[in-house]
Amino acid sequence: SRKSTMTLVEDVVLKIFEVSPDHNSSIETTLGLLQKHGLKSKKPKVVLLSAKLVLSSVQEYGVPVFPITLLSSSCEILLANANKEVREAGLGIMAEIFRALGSKTCLQSIVDKMKPAQQSQLNSRLASKSTPTEPKRRLRCQRSQPSEDVRTTMKRKEEEAKAQSFASRPAVNLIQTLP
After folding, report:
1. Cα(140)–Cα(158) distance, rounded to whole angstroms?
2. Phi, psi angles (nearest 5°) of residue 139
């Protein structure tokens, strides 16, 4: 694992996120692949690089760009890892999620599974910086749009996901179901 190779890999992953269209599955696919083949790898260097990629992606683009379910499952994997640097990356991602959401309540189940030392580290990170990190980059599809508040973006995405799940429910034949 040469330093230049790792830098190139990070640049490629960040570019994939940057060029993905809005509401496209490429972000989910890329994060899923990082989780499946990177975070769950048997090779410690691969796990560490994947953890750093997820953390840097969240710091570069902000939490609202990524699906919270994938980020939270990635955090669970990272926090259970034996490598200290990998666990630190998991704590960094969790801190960014909590800063963006404004509270820990939505992912309380993950916090409850953490060790007391990890919980205190997370609390100290949140105490030292309570506001979300300002994204350094924006997706190309968002460049023409004015920047939104993080919580507004998260709420909008949640409402869109609810509307999509409502629209994709199976049709019911009322004539047959009514007596």
Report:
1. 21
2. -65, 150
Q: Which two tokens stand for residue 56?
A: 């840097």
Distance CA 151, CA 156 (A): 8
Instruction: Confirm if 97 and 148 have CB atoms less than 8 A apart.
Output: no
Which contiguous run of DSSP H or E holds residue 16? helix 3-19
Q: Find the length of the chain.
A: 179
Q: What crossing angle do the helices spanning 84-101 and 44-61 adopt, rounded to 10°? A: 20
- In the chain, the amino acid numbered 67 is P
Residue 83: Cβ within 10 Å count = 14
* C-alpha to C-alpha distances, 57 to 26, 54, 123, 164, nearest whole angstrom: 14, 5, 22, 26
Query: Considering just the CA atoms, what is the radius of gyration of the chain in Å?
Result: 18
Residue 168, Cα to own-chain centre: how many angstroms? 24
Query: Quick one: how far is CA 66 from the chain centroid?
Result: 5
Nearest to 100 by CA among 24, 146, 153, 50: 153
Q: What is the pLDDT of residues 81-119, one digit of tens each?
A: 999 999 999 999 999 998 888 888 888 888 899 999 999
For residue 98, give both structure tokens.
Answer: 């909590």
124 pLDDT band, cuts 50/70/90, is very high
138 backbone dihedrals φ, ψ, rounded to 5°: -130, 150
